[in-house]
Amino acid sequence: MKIRLAQLNPMIGDIAGNVSLIKDSMDKANADGIDLLVLPELVVCGYPPMDLIERPAFRDAIYDANSEITTSAMDTAVLFGTATVNDGVGRKCFNSALLVQQGKILAEVHKTLLPTYDVYDELRYFEPNNNGFACVEFQGRKLGITVCEDIWHNFELSYLTYDVNPVQELVAEGAEAIFNVSASPFSQGKPDGRKRMLQQHVEKRNVPVFYANQVGGNTELVSDGDSMALDSDGKVVGRAPLFEASHIDLDWYDDDTQVANIGAPPVEVPEKIEQMFHALVLGLQDYLRKTDVADKVVLGLSGGIDSALVATIAAEALGAENVIGITMPSEFSSEGSITDSQKLADNLGIELHELAIKDIYDQFNKTLEPLFEGTSFGVAEENIQPRIRGTLLMAWSNKFDHMLLNTGNKSELATGYCTLYGDMAGGLGIISDLYKTEVYEMAHWLNNDYFNREIIPADILSKPPSAELRPDQKDADSLPDYEVLDPILKAYIEQQLADHEIVAHGFDASTVERITSLVDHNEYKRFQAVPGLKVSSKAFGSGRRWPIAQQWTINRE
Q: pLDDT, tens digit, for every residue of 429-443?
C-alpha cells in the first residue's frame, strides 16, 4: 500500500481555499498512484477554529466541503480531518477524520481525547467520541485511526491524565497500524518529544505509525509539520521537513508490518535555536498572509539587540524591501543607537528613517511641568519617551498601512520592564516568547552559522543592554543579569515552581522573591500586550491564563 503523508498549510475560515488545497493534493496523489493520502486535523476549516465553530453557517460550510471532497475522491483514498455533525445531545459537532474514496465515505472516526490545557480548549467546542473503538478496513488491512491528542495519551504529562488510551484500544481490536491526523503546534523540544512519543507506541504495540501534521502559523501558534512514519521496529523511515508544506511517501508492505520510504530520505531535525528561528519566520509570514492586514512592516530600531533581531527575522520572512526601520533618538540616546541602527539597516538592506524626539519630549515636559512641580525625575518622565516613539511608529503604520512589529522579549514582558502604550505597541510580538539570553543566542547563531557573516553588528552584540531613558541607564540597574534572571523566570513561569523551590536550585532568596513579585504585579500589562508568537511550553497569551484581580501570589502565599 502506497501511503502519502501530506502536511498542508490551511487558513482558518478559508474553507473554499482549503478545499482547493486539499483537492490539489488529491489530484497529485492520484497522478502519482498513491493508495492512501493522509491529511492533517481539521484541514477543511483550519486549526484552531475557536468560536467560529459555534456559528451554524460556518459548520454548514464545513459539512458542504466534506461532501465536495468526498465527491471529488477518485482511486486514491483520502483520510482527512474535519468537523462532522453530532445529531445527539451535547455539542453540535465532532472533531473527526473521514476516509473517502470513489465518491463515498468509507469511515468516520471521532476524536476521543479533547485537550483543555495550555492553548487548547477543544471540549468547549466538540463532543468527544464515547462510542468505543473500531478499526477501519481498507485494502484488506485494519487501520487504527486517531486524531491528534488521541495519540499523545498521558505522554510526559504535565496537566491532566486520560483514562482511555485510544491506541491501546485500537490495537486490541486488531489494528495493524496507527494513523494520526494532527494539528500540533510547535514548542521548544516538540520535534524530539513527538518522535519519542511515537516510538513508545511502536515499542508497546509493535505496529507501524503514520503521523500527518499541519504546518503554518495561526495567530500566536505555529505548527511545524514534522510528519513522519515509523516501522514496527520503531525506526523513522520517513520524516518531512519542519516549517514547510511538504509530503513524504511510504510503502506499507502487504506481507508484513514493515514500512519503506519511497521518496526522499528522512530529514535531519535542526538544533533548537534554528527551529525557533524558522518558527518565528513562518509565524510572521503567515500572520500577514492570513490576516491580509499589510504587505510591509515597520519597527523602531534602537541600536539594541531586540530590535536588531526582529528586523533580521522580518527581512528573512518578508524580504528586505518590505521592512522599514525608524530610529528615534532622544537626549539620552547613545551615539551608537543611531550608527548601529544604520549599520544593521545597511547589512540587511532595509529602509531606515530617523525621527529625533527631543523637541517633542521637551514639549511634553513643559506641558506637564505645572502638575509635576516639586517632584523629581522618575519613571513617569522616562516612560514619556517610549510613548512618543510608539505614537510616531503608529502614525507611520496608519499612514502607509504597514504593520508595526513589537520588539519586546519575554524577560521584559515577564518583569514589566516595558511601557504600556509605548514600546508595547504593535500588531504582533515577534520575540515575546524568547528570553533575553535566547535573543543573544539566536543573534550569534544567525551571524556565525546561518548567514556566516556579520549581519547583526558586533557593537550591538557586545554593548550592555539599556532602555536609554535616563543618563547612563543600564538594564542591570533594574534587573539581575539575564543569566540569573532568565532561569528564575523559566522556573516560575514554565515549570511553575514556588519561590522556595527555585531558591533550592541555588538562587538568592531575596532575588527570587523580587523577580516573582514583578511577574505577578505586571499581569495587567501582559493582558494588554500584542499577540506574540509561541515557541515555548508556556507562552504569555492564551496558554497562560492568570487573573489580574487576585491576591494569592500578590501576597506571596
A: 999 999 999 999 999
